[in-house]
Amino acid sequence: MPKAPVPKAPGRSQRAQEWWQHKQQRLSLHARVTLLAAVTVGLAVAIVSISAYLTVRQQMYRNLDDSLVSRAEIAVRSGELTEPDNLQKILPDMVGLSDQLIGLVLADSQAYVMSRTYQPPIAEPEVAVAKNQSKPNVRSVGSPNDRHFRVAAVAAGPICPPGLGQEECDPSLSQPGALVVAQSLSSIDRTLHNLGVVLWAVGIIGVIGAALAGNAIAQSGLRPLARLTGAAEYVARTAELRPIPVTGTDEISRLAQAFNAMLAALAQSQDRQRRLVGDAGHELRTPLTSIRTNLDLLAQADQRGGLSPEDRRQLLDDVRAQMDELTALIGDLTELARDTPQNRGYELIELSNVVQDAVSRVRRRAPGAEWDVQLMPFPVWGDERLLGRAVTNLLDNAAKYSPPDGRVVVRLLDGVLTVTDSGPGIAEADLPHVFERFYRSSEARSRPGSGLGLAIVKHAAEQHGGMIYARNAPPMGAQFTLWLPHAAAQTRQPAPTPPPSRPFKPRTSR
């Protein structure tokens, strides 16, 4: 059997990277900003310092090289220093070269120097200039700590042996040579050393200053973030949704504004939750109390000999009605509590069929009403059960507030469903609240219902990317308009703006 491949151990670079990431994650944001500022300025200072040092060094060497070559060429043209006899008799002070070493090297490597001076560094490069009579050669010899020289060799042409003058010199006896000039680099080395010390000092001071500046900037810039962190910790500790003061328009201020908006939304959610729990408890208490009362009456009647069949049937019918009301209320609460994301598990449905089925169901519950229905096909993506519940609630609401022989107009045109009843209309003070959970006007509390039907309609519209609004439509009653997007595109057309309501004084409020 083939052996399974052995996983390779992480390389050194990978381990170093993982170590650096681990160390970086342990640093606070304050420390990261300070470190980033110090490292950035340190790199900038290092690059500038190295560039300045190399530029100054190169320029000083270039100036020295030009000076050495120029002075050597002048001496070669004069001819006084290219004769071995003259060179050995001349003192450096006589030609103003007391700070330099001058020598003459022949092609056979024989060298001559000035009187009372040291021989300049002569090696193969200088002999090569003498042999080949090539262009001048300049090089450095030694080190800054041990006899550091800059040596220039310039071709000097045929040189006669010592003891023979130019007139007596036989061309066959002469040989090519080169004049060698060496300049000590001690002064340049001291200058470069001092420059390096200054650059190092400036760099260290710059890095320290950058770290201090980064620390100050981090403290100043992260102070709002510290307040935001403290506010978040306070909210987590006390559950008190208290916003923090915001000043400025920078990124941290925008984060604080977003945090305050989140706190406001959370506070609204908590307020809605408390109101929902309180209203649900109140609404659930009424049918439960009625059921308990009826059951107590039934039990007491059984202890006294029982009720008549007619009274018993009426009492049980009342209990069943209360149970139906309780079941409907629980179903409405469950529907509103369900927070299904939009378009999850939706299917392609025909909205006109949903409306037609709802009309058929409600028409059986309100046989005396006149139904004026006009539907046009309109496909939508959605939850057929939820849409059916919403449309049924709209139609039930219209039938409930219409008189027994009233007229209900239902229109479905281009994705806009309008339901208009012939009831008293909606009071202007109640219009902004008709879709709120458990909201019922004082006059409407005498009618059956929990106040959740229109809230479910709004919930269904929002879940399907639509909208719902209400208005009065004289000479009839209230009109509810439900808009849903086409199945081909969620934003095929913008949601229609609610039409302005004409002045209408309702006969009563819902």
TrEMBL record:
Q: Name one Pfam family in it.
A: HisKA
HAMP domain boundaries: 219-271
Q: Which reaction does it catalyse?
A: ATP + protein L-histidine = ADP + protein N-phospho-L-histidine
Spell out the subcellular localization from the entry: Cell membrane
Segments spanning the bilayer are 33-54, 197-218
Alphabetically sorted, this entry's keywords are: Kinase, Membrane, Phosphoprotein, Transferase, Transmembrane, Transmembrane helix, Two-component regulatory system
Chain spans, region Disordered: 489-510
Q: What is its EC number?
A: 2.7.13.3
Q: Which domain of life is it from?
A: Bacteria
- PANTHER family cross-referenced by the UniProt entry: SENSOR HISTIDINE KINASE TRCS (PTHR45436:SF5), SENSOR HISTIDINE KINASE YKOH (PTHR45436)
Protein name as annotated: histidine kinase
